Amino acid sequence: MPSHSCYARSILAGAISLCILVIIFMRFNETTLPALPLARTPSSSSTDLLHDVLNQTLGFQKIFVINLPSRTDHRDAMSLAAAVTGLEIEYVDGVTEVEDKALPPGGAEVHLNKGGLGNWRAHLNIARMIVEQNITSALVLEDDADWDLRIKSQMQDFARAARLLVQPKPGTSHQYLDPTWPQPSAGQTPQNFVVGEEVTAEPDTSAYGDIDRWDLFWLGHCGTRFPRSSDINAPLGRAVIKDDETVPEKQHVKMQFGNDELIQEYPAHTRVVSRARMNTCTLGYGISLPGARRLLYELGVRKMTGTTDMMFRSLCDGVDERKIRTCLTVQPQLFQHHRPLGAKSSFSDISDHGDDYNDQAFSRNIRWSTRLNLAKLVDGETDYIDLFKDGEGSTELGF
Ligand SMILES: *[C@@H]1O[C@H](CO)[C@@H](O)[C@H](O)[C@H]1NC(C)=O
Ligand SMILES: *[C@@H]1O[C@H](CO)[C@@H](O)[C@H](O)[C@H]1NC(C)=O
């Protein structure tokens, strides 16, 4: 029938022109999308493992993101944020049901609520997967995490800092820098090692230091403090990243559950890496294969002693009858909770954030927040929103 074939032809023509339009649009976008900014000149030598930190998994073997399948809002935003900052992520389902029978010793006495139990299980499922699949190292994120657009060069600075604090392999000619290692004597004070001024041995197995030399990098948290000699068991050394333009000026930096030593003792725009102490929230961390085995043993097999972050903390601090592990952290943190517009009750499936409405989206301490800049990033615009501008007063933000 003529009318039919005519109809078919116009559909075909329509489809072809749509295809052409899509191709033109993609081409256009490919050529106009600006390269993402880096805070500093990246390491250029491709033989140096530091170069790996600029790859799609930030120099780890994998990036895992925990997401409850019902939180499609979190997954939508996370996938977009990862895509526009050049990160390759793998989702691991959050957990809603945990059987009492399946809890390790101590589990029944801890009385975690359903959200808390699910959170514990989700983090342990990832540790187990790392162990089962023999994954050298991974970055683990909760699905409301946000980061600066310049995350790749920030992580390169973190790697340089970590190398100064992670003990070099025995037999290398480099001395261990920190005189307070493995533990400080009474009255010893912390020494600062400036990143870029000190040299350490080149690691073989990970850009961040050999994986048998570190357990966990607590990169996303809601507060920490520096170790003290009175803690007895942790080295005090600090690796200092100076003139870091991605760190907001002091009036904007919020230490949440941590203390304000960073703000008191260091000039503005300084980021400091040290051993983790009293960290809260397990929103983002790097973990080595040996670290994952220890986590799985301590939190899954040996004993449940509290909430997930309390148990991570006890491993890093070496308390609650747990051996101290090599955990580093960073102030201000590199991953932070994003608080979108809307009801605060939607912030978390674990804890209660009240009934208020949040009318300013933000991520504490993150200057060029990926989440806040999604609208710009999908359009290839580069006049990024900086919620924490130099010289401006601090904004009153919700928690
Ligand atoms: C990034 O580098 C790490 C370390 O070399 C490697 O294991 C990982 O596979 C790399 N990621 C990608 C996406 O190539
Ligand atoms: C795990 O990987 C390491 C190298 O990273 C390798 O030496 C070891 O044999 C692997 N183990 C298993 C059980 O595959």
From TrEMBL:
<dbReference type="InterPro" id="IPR050757">
    <property type="entry name" value="Collagen_mod_GT25"/>
</dbReference>
<protein>
    <recommendedName>
        <fullName>Glycosyl transferase family 25 domain-containing protein</fullName>
    </recommendedName>
</protein>
<feature type="domain" description="Glycosyl transferase family 25">
    <location>
        <begin position="61"/>
        <end position="159"/>
    </location>
</feature>
<dbReference type="Pfam" id="PF01755">
    <property type="entry name" value="Glyco_transf_25"/>
</dbReference>
<feature type="transmembrane region" description="Helical">
    <location>
        <begin position="7"/>
        <end position="28"/>
    </location>
</feature>
<dbReference type="InterPro" id="IPR002654">
    <property type="entry name" value="Glyco_trans_25"/>
</dbReference>
<keyword id="KW-1133">Transmembrane helix</keyword>
<keyword id="KW-0328">Glycosyltransferase</keyword>
<keyword id="KW-0472">Membrane</keyword>
<keyword id="KW-0808">Transferase</keyword>
<comment type="similarity">
    <text>Belongs to the glycosyltransferase 25 family.</text>
</comment>
<keyword id="KW-0812">Transmembrane</keyword>
